[in-house]
Amino acid sequence: MRGFSYGDDIAAGAILARRLQDDLADALRVFVEHGGGILGICNGFQVLVKMGLLPGGEFGRDRITVTFNDSARFEARWVRLEVCTACCPYLQEGSFLEMPVEHAEGKIVTADDTVTRRLLQAGRVAVRYVDADGRYDVYPANPNGSTAGIAGLCDATGRIFGLMPHPDRHFDHTQHPHWTRRNTPTGPPDGLTVFENAVRFWAK
User: Fold this and answer.
1) Residue 143's CATH number
2) Number of domains, the chain
3) Residue 102 in contact with residue 75, Cβ under 8 Å?
4) Beta carbons of 183 and 155 less than 8 angstroms apart
5) Which of 29, 56, 65, 111 is the most core-located residue (most Cβ within 10 A)?
């Protein structure tokens, strides 16, 4: 699930979220309850948050949202992500990923510090922006000013996963801006690993 739905004319993902909430939300929940998975990238993530599917459960649509970047401009840059959860089949806990962001409305905001702590403690924060020193609150490593550096969320099952960065744009090592200066990679590109992890999980 990705793309500039309805031109983001009201707010990013808001119209599509409303339409899906009315027509498909219950069916999507049943799909996940029966073992299915949903991945939302960038605009797709915004839609999942505004539908209430992310982070889901006790974290309702009034507890978290996605809004305009602190920089008040479109951010297109590569970021470093720390995987912060053990329950998401798309990810490997403790790993780091690099991929690009491209958005004007990517700032994840929670209702208050209590909600933020609960998200972190419950493993719902799937990935967060970090710089080389592990700081999550420094621009441009955190390109939009997201609370606690949150870059992506998952639900309680881990099978609904969404993130603002684009794993779909790091399928080849030559897509990385430093590919000519990096050591020869030994594994697949970081974006591709997200999809390979999912294939391995659902192929069991």
Assistant:
1) 3.40.50.880
2) 1
3) yes
4) no
5) 56
**Which tokens go with 34?**
């029966």
Task: Please report where in the chains the tokens 């939300």 appear, as a residue.
Answer: 25
pLDDT digits (tens, 9 = 90+) for 133-192: 999 999 999 999 999 999 999 999 999 999 999 999 999 999 999 998 887 777 899 999
Q: What is the DSSP letter of 189?
A: -
Domain hosting 12: range is 5-202
Task: Count CA within 13 A, CB hemisphere, residue 75.
Answer: 26
Burial class (CB in 10 A: 0-12, 13-18, 19+), 114: exposed
What number of CA atoms fall less than 13 Å from residue 179's CA on the CB side?
A: 12
Amino acid found at 25: A
CB 76 within 8 A of CB 118: no
Model pTM greater than 0.70?
A: yes
3-state SS, one letter per residue, for 33-83: HCCCCEEEECHHHHHHHHHCCCCECCECCCCEEEECCCCCCCEEEEEEEEE
Q: What is the pLDDT of residue 181?
A: 87
Task: Name the amino acid, one letter, at 92.
Answer: Q
Write out pLDDT tens, residues 189-203. Answer: 999 999 999 999 999
Average pLDDT over residues 96-110: 96
SS3 state of residue 145: coil
Per-residue tokens: 82: 């720390």
Q: What are phi and psi of 173, to 5 degrees?
A: -60, -30
